[in-house]
Specification:
162 residues; globular; 7-stranded antiparallel sheet
Length: 162
C-alpha cells in the first residue's frame, strides 16, 4: 500500500507516499497494462486534473457478464463505474474489462458512499491489476472496494455528452 489513508498519515510528510508510489509505478511500468499505467501515473492522484476521481460521487456501478458459445456458457465478469466528477462538470467512467475478484464493503450504506477519497492501482503476483478504493463515508464508517481485474480504463465525458 502506498497512498491510502493509513500511508498518507504515517510518516508526517504527506509527499513521501506519493514519491514511493511513483517509484513503484516506474519499476513496474512494463508489467502494467497500458491503460492502467496511464491512469495510475496520470489523473488518478492528480487533483488538478478534472479527470481525477478524488472527491467524485458514485452515480452507478454495473456488472456485466458477456457471454459466448453455443449455449452462451462461456462467460466472464466486467465492471463499469460512473462517477460525477469533483467539479460536477463531467462524468468519469471506469471500465474493468475482465474482473477476477472483488470485495465491496459499506458498513453504513444509507447515505451512499460519500466522496471517492483515495485509491491506488497495483499489481499482484499473477500480474493482475488491483484497484483499492476508499470512500469517505459517514464519520468512522467509510466504504472500501478492492477490485482485481485484467485492466482498468478511464473515460471522461462532459455532462452534456453523457
Amino acid at each position: 500500500m502506498y497512498v491510502l489513508t493509513e500511508q498518507l498519515h504515517a510518516d508526517g510528510d504527506p509527499n513521501l507516499p506519493f514519491k514511493r508510489y511513483g517509484k513503484y509505478l516506474e519499476r513496474n511500468k512494463d508489467r502494467f497494462p497500458v491503460s492502467a499505467f496511464k491512469l495510475a501515473s496520470g489523473p488518478l492522484l492528480n487533483a488538478a486534473d478534472r479527470r481525477c476521481p478524488h472527491d467524485a460521487w458514485l452515480e452507478w456501478a454495473r456488472f456485466e457478464e458477456p457471454a459466448k458459445g453455443k449455449r452462451r456458457h462461456i462467460r466472464h465478469l466486467s465492471l463499469r463505474v460512473r462517477l460525477l466528477g469533483a467539479y460536477h462538470d463531467r462524468y468519469l467512467e471506469l471500465f474493468y474489462p475482465k474482473v477476477y475478484s472483488y470485495t465491496m464493503t459499506n458498513p453504513v450504506a444509507s447515505g451512499g458512499h460519500y466522496d471517492w477519497r483515495y485509491s491506488e492501482l497495483t499489481l499482484n503476483k499473477a500480474g493482475n491489476v488491483v484497484h483499492e478504493i476508499e470512500w469517505a463515508g459517514p464519520p468512522g464508517a467509510h466504504a472500501t472496494w478492492l477490485i482485481e481485474a485484467s485492466d482498468v480504463r478511464l473515460r471522461s465525458l462532459p455532462l452534456g455528452e453523457a
